[in-house]
Amino acid sequence: MRATAFSKAERLLMKSARLSVVPRCTGPSSSNDTNDNSTGQSKAPFGYTRKDVLLIGGGVTVLGIVLKYGLEFLGVDPLQAGNVVQLVLVLGLTVGWISTYMFGVSNKEMTYDICSTVA
Question: Cβ(31)–Cβ(116) under 8 Å?
C-alpha cells in the first residue's frame, strides 16, 4: 500500500477545513424537512421563496400608493395623506409582524432550539 503524500498547502487546507466544520444535530427534530416529492424538493410555504417576497413587497407598495391617492381623492392634503399612509403602513406591518411571533409562542409552535432550525 502506498502512503499518500500531501503538500504543505494541502495539509494546511485540510487543517483549516477541519476547524470550520459545522456540527450537525443528531437528535430527533421537530421540523418538517421531509421531501415527499419524487424530485427531492418539497414545496415551500408562501413567503419563503424569492418570488413570494417580491410579490409581498410589490403588494405593500401598491397598497401604499392606492391609500395615498385614495386619501387625496377624498380631499386630504397630499402631505397629510403621505404621512397618514406611512404611519398606517409602518405601524400596521410592525404590529402584524410582532403578532405572528406572539401567536407562535402562545401556540407553542415557536422553537428556540438551534438544532431544529438548522437544515
Answer: yes
DSSP of the chain: -PPPP--HHHHHHHHHHHHTPPPPP-S---S-----STTS-PPPPTTSSHHHHHHHHHHHHHHHHHHHHHHHHTT--HHHHHHHHHHHHHHHHHHHHHHHHHHHHHTT-----HHHH--
| pLDDT tens by residue, 59-90 | 999 999 999 999 999 999 999 999 999 999 99
Q: What is the pTM of this model?
A: 0.54
